[in-house]
């Protein structure tokens, strides 16, 4: 493999139902930073059916060039034709770096593509940088390497990975981590149409049905954000404030045992030793003071934000961020602030 | 001499532990609070073969050894004493005597479904006037043609009314010796639930193991087939005592499990609970109490496992069983009482499991032979 | 039908992750378990066995100690266990791991290969799809329901807001989510049988159609630049909100810097 042949930063521009996914724009933002460090340009690979109209949006968010693979076989995401499309683009255009979103689609497509073109793939990266790396067997570190940092072990460890002897250097990137660039309206990109040809074979799967899921009963264990209230919320009516906050931030309401015992909320929302064990990305503990029982059910949460009047409340011992104050006054204002931010 | 468990025993323990944590523990408080017999758990255990662990595969069992069975009762009892005794009474007191004394026909008819868990078993020796003095029993069985006719009543019967098969001890003969003293001879019978004349009396309201069903059994001209005599006629008392030797190992492991469960919870609690600005685990009193309790629990485990091994390799293991039960039961009572003390006020509150465990522990000093009976068995062997 | 299930032995994080005094992960102090997604894959295979009759072979790559997960799988009902272990296979990344497993599976007959979506220690979700590529088989990842129809499988494949119902011809590779099912428990008798059973052990020479340059540490395209264990979080930071606005600003700042919103 002649490493010098491989140039440019490529991103896989994921689209679903002919709408560009937010992850594609985030990848473009990061790709621009990396390309600047390397003195190269950014190429988006757009794969689908009737997707040419999406090119300008990619240009506005920072793509210098867009390679479009447009074919009726690519109408819905399927592993094989998409792998064939992306792997063919790689073989033809030889990127130095290829970024793919760590979405359900990207985590299916990425590994298969990397295996087809025989390169390494680092999954679920949260930090990408260009830097030097001394490969095994090398005397001197090499410059201009992609250093891919990712959490492992459920976030308990982090590792930085390089891919020195294979190209492209491939990474899937966790959604929501990289920053989009501010779009520049009217930007244009060089457009290349490329079609490697699609011939159905045994590796093609047949799509029998597509079912959009409807939200079912509340499952606090599946929630990424939990807004949890305790006795300190004061009354069932006050829980409406927590409902509002949960809605604004895209979370779910849960509660402590005292709340269930008071009949304010049903048992299936209870967190703690006698309730459910939860592990959301963010856990708001609002007006929850009594510790051991409750903490046993939520201490593994990634970020714990506690609001309580009592500065000695044991919940502060496990909180990442503790706010001593009146939750009933803070929560509605926080809801407004989040709504304003999300609406931006 | 090697005190390490084999890999397969370790894996079996992990299985029982996972099952106890996931399936049994979530129900333990409710089972206690509402005196609910956990039929749903029994159904799950049936599917997994927990109801026939030491029974050979050809009789529908799992083909494991007594130690594996003992570890199952131990792990279940760590989280729920009720569930532990349901398995113990079923396995040790009903399946085991049929396995030991049953004819091939009896084994096919009763042991196979018992070991598969399709039927639940119980054992009936105690009577209102005959507890520790089991010889004082009054229930009689009289042969009438091809049937035995049972009359009398039994009390404090674990798994009562939920069990399908009952091992019942009854008088089949009374002889008067030269000095004019009456000498009873007993026989053992297999009685099916639903047999006409066999009914259930009151359900006892208990201090602990409140989910286990404890019933009075009433026999009024209850006719059972002649072939349901278990073992030789007139040897029933010996069969009952031998059965209880096995049962005592089961109860010893129940006591051990309760003690271990309480100790585990307390170790976690003292590390979290703060008084005077530091955790109570940092108090020397706590440290020393826990050290003593852990040592006693370990000693109890060694005695219980030794008794289980004795059951696997020896014909007679009365003394091993009695020592294991005596010691484990008293350790369970001491450990749970001290664990409640270390929990302070919370230890007296139902929400905390040690409160239930202290109540559950007490029965292990009483049933299947009180601690006093165990001392009689042990001293009897020393001074014979 | 013959089903091959790939499983991995991983450290158990359920009882909390254990750390050494210096803040690094204490792997030795953590128990090991069968990776949860793999266990769901095994359960799916065992259900197909219950329903249609199948021979289920479990394959793992790892240290000799990984034999334990094979015994566990057999105690749940798998028919055969194959341990792929060799010094030269150590230090493998996902590419080298998938190459190795594919080399082992080439020795076997199969209609279906099931792997877990991802392992809880690496969280990469790469090995299953890469095995499919090496063996040139169709792939259905993220299965939440599996049915057999003639010579095909019908699988519900989960996406974020939808699922596809997909049909693929066997043989094919399916990766399973732990949400797919509730894996069964072992049975006590199953455990005793599993410890009496033979486990097949394969080393490098037993791998079929595999080049040395694609195996182990040396055959791994990715290399670790640095690894560190996150220090366990203790008590966090506290602030006193004199006014509600102060508290709101503080929380908003944290939510934004942590990319929650």
TrEMBL record, chain B:
Is this entry keyworded Flavoprotein?
Answer: yes
The UniProt entry's sequence similarity note says:
Belongs to the acyl-CoA dehydrogenase family.
Designated name of the protein: Acyl-CoA dehydrogenase
Domain Acyl-CoA dehydrogenase/oxidase C-terminal: where?
Answer: 234-381
Task: Name the cofactor(s).
Answer: FAD
Record GO terms (molecular function):
acyl-CoA dehydrogenase activity; flavin adenine dinucleotide binding
The record, for InterPro entries, names: Acyl-CoA_DH_CS, Acyl-CoA_Oxase/DH_mid-dom, Acyl-CoA_Oxase/DH_mid-dom_sf, AcylCo_DH-like_C, AcylCo_DH/oxidase_C, AcylCoA_DH/ox_N, AcylCoA_DH/ox_N_sf, AcylCoA_DH/oxidase_NM_dom_sf
Q: Which domain of life is it from?
A: Bacteria
Q: Which parts of the sequence belong to the Acyl-CoA oxidase/dehydrogenase middle domain?
A: 122-222
CDD domains according to UniProt:
SCAD_SBCAD (cd01158)
- One Pfam family in the UniProt entry: Acyl-CoA_dh_1
The UniProt keyword set, sorted, is: FAD, Flavoprotein, Oxidoreductase
Ranges where the Acyl-CoA dehydrogenase/oxidase N-terminal domain occurs: 7-118
From TrEMBL, chain C:
The record's annotation in Pfam families points to: ETF
What are the Electron transfer flavoprotein alpha/beta-subunit N-terminal domain coordinates in residue numbering? 22-210
Gene3D superfamilies documented for this protein: HUPs (3.40.50.620)
Q: Which GO terms describe its molecular function?
A: electron transfer activity
Classify the source by domain of life.
Bacteria
**Coiled-coil annotated residue ranges, if any:** none
Q: What is the protein's given name?
A: Electron transfer flavoprotein small subunit
Please name the taxonomic classification of the source: Bacteria, Bacillati, Bacillota, Clostridia, Lachnospirales
């Amino acid at each position: 493999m002649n490493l010098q042949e491989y140039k440019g930063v490529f991103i896989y521009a994921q689209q679903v139902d002919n709408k560009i996914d937010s992850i594609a724009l985030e990848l473009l933002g990061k790709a621009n930073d990396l390309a600047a460090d390397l003195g190269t340009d950014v190429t988006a690979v757009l794969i689908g059916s009737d997707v040419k109209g999406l090119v300008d949006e990619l240009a506005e968010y920072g793509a210098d060039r867009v390679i479009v693979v447009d074919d009726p076989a690519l109408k819905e995401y399927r592993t094989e034709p998409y792998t064939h499309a992306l792997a063919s683009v790689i073989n033809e255009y030889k990127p130095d770096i290829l970024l793919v979103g760590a979405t359900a689609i990207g985590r299916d497509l990425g590994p298969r593509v990397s295996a087809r073109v025989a390169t390494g793939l680092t999954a679920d990266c949260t930090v990408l940088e260009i830097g030097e790396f001394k490969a095994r067997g090398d005397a001197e570190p090499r410059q201009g390497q992609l250093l891919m940092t990712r959490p492992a072990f459920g976030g308990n460890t982090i590792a930085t990975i390089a891919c020195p002897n294979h190209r492209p250097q491939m990474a899937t990137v966790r959604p929501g981590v990289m920053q989009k660039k501010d779009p520049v309206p009217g930007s244009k990109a060089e457009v290349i149409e490329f079609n490697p040809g699609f011939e159905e074979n045994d590796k093609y799967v047949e799509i029998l049905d597509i079912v959009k899921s409807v939200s079912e009963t509340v499952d606090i264990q599946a929630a990424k954000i939990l807004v949890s209230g305790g006795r300190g919320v004061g009354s069932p009516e006050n829980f409406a404030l927590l409902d509002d906050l949960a809605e604004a931030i895209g979370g779910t309401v849960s509660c402590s045992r005292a709340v269930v015992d008071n009949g304010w909320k049903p048992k299936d929302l209870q967190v703690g030793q006698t309730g459910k064990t939860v592990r959301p990305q963010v856990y708001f503990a609002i007006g929850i003071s009594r510790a051991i029982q409750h903490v046993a059910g939520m201490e593994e949460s990634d970020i714990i934000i506690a609001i309580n009047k009592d500065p000695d409340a044991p919940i502060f011992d496990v909180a990442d961020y503790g706010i001593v104050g009146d939750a009933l006054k803070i929560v509605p204002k926080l809801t407004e602030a989040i709504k304003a931010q999300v609406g931006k | 001499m090697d005190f390490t468990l084999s890999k397969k025993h370790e894996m079996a323990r992990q299985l029982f532990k996972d099952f106890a944590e996931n399936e049994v523990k979530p129900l333990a408080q409710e089972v206690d609070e509402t005196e609910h017999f956990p039929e749903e758990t029994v159904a799950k255990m049936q599917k997994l073969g927990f109801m026939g662990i030491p029974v050979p595969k050809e009789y529908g069992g799992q083909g494991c050894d007594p130690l594996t069975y003992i570890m199952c009762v131990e792990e279940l009892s760590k989280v729920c004493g009720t569930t532990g005794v349901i398995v113990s009474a079923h396995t040790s007191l009903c399946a085991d005597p049929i396995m030991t004394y049953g004819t091939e026909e009896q084994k096919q008819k009763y042991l196979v479904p018992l070991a598969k868990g399709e039927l639940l078993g119980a054992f009936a020796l105690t009577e209102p006037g005959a507890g520790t003095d089991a010889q004082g029993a009054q229930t009689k069985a009289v042969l009438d043609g091809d049937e035995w006719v049972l009359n009398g009543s039994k009390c404090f019967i674990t798994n009562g009314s939920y069990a399908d098969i009952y091992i019942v001890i009854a008088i089949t003969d009374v002889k008067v010796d030269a000095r004019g003293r009456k000498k009873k001879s007993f026989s053992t019978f297999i009685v099916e639930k639903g047999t006409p004349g066999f009914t259930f009396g009151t359900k006892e309201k208990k201090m602990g193991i409140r989910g286990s069903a404890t019933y009075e059994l009433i026999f009024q001209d209850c006719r059972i087939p002649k072939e349901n005599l278990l073992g030789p006629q007139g040897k029933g008392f010996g069969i009952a005592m031998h059965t209880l030797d096995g049962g005592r190992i089961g109860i010893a492991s129940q006591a051990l499990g309760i003690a271990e469960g309480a100790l585990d919870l307390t170790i976690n609690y003292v590390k979290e609970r703060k008084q005077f600005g530091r955790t109570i685990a940092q108090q020397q009193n706590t440290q020393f109490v826990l050290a003593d309790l852990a040592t006693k629990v370990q000693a109890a485990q060694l005695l219980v496992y030794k008794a289980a091994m004795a059951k696997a390799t020896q014909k007679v293991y009365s003394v091993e069983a009695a020592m294991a039960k005596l010691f484990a039961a008293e350790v369970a009572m001491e450990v749970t009482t001290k664990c409640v003390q270390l929990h302070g006020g919370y230890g007296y509150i139902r929400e905390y499991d040690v409160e239930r465990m202290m109540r559950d522990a007490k029965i292990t000093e009483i049933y299947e032979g009180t601690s006093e009976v165990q001392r009689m068995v042990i001293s009897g062997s020393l001074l014979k | 039908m013959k089903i091959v299930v790939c499983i991995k032995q991983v450290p158990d994080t359920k009882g909390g992750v254990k750390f050494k005094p210096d803040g690094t992960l204490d792997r030795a102090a953590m128990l090991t378990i069968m990776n949860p997604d793999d266990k769901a894959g095994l359960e799916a295979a065992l259900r197909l066995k219950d329903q249609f009759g199948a021979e289920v072979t479990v394959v793992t790559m790892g240290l000799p100690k990984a034999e334990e997960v094979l015994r566990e799988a057999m105690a749940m009902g798998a028919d055969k266990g194959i341990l792929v272990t060799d010094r030269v296979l150590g230090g493998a990344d996902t590419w080298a791991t998938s190459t190795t497993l594919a080399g082992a599976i080439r020795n076997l007959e199969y209609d279906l290969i099931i792997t877990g979506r991802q392992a809880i220690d690496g969280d990469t979700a790469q090995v299953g799809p890469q095995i499919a590529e090496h063996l040139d088989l169709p792939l259905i990842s993220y299965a939440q329901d599996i049915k057999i129809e003639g010579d095909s499988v019908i699988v519900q494949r989960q996406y974020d807001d939808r699922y596809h119902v997909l049909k693929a011809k066997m043989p094919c590779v399916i990766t399973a989510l732990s949400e797919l099912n509730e894996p069964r428990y072992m049975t006590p008798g199953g455990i005793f049988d599993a410890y009496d059973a033979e486990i097949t052990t394969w080393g490098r020479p037993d791998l079929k159609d595999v080049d040395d340059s694609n195996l182990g540490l040396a055959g791994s395209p990715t290399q670790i630049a640095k690894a560190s264990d996150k220090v366990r979080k203790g008590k966090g930071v506290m602030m006193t909100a004199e006014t509600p606005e102060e508290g709101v600003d503080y929380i908003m700042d944290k939510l934004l810097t942590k990319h929650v919103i």
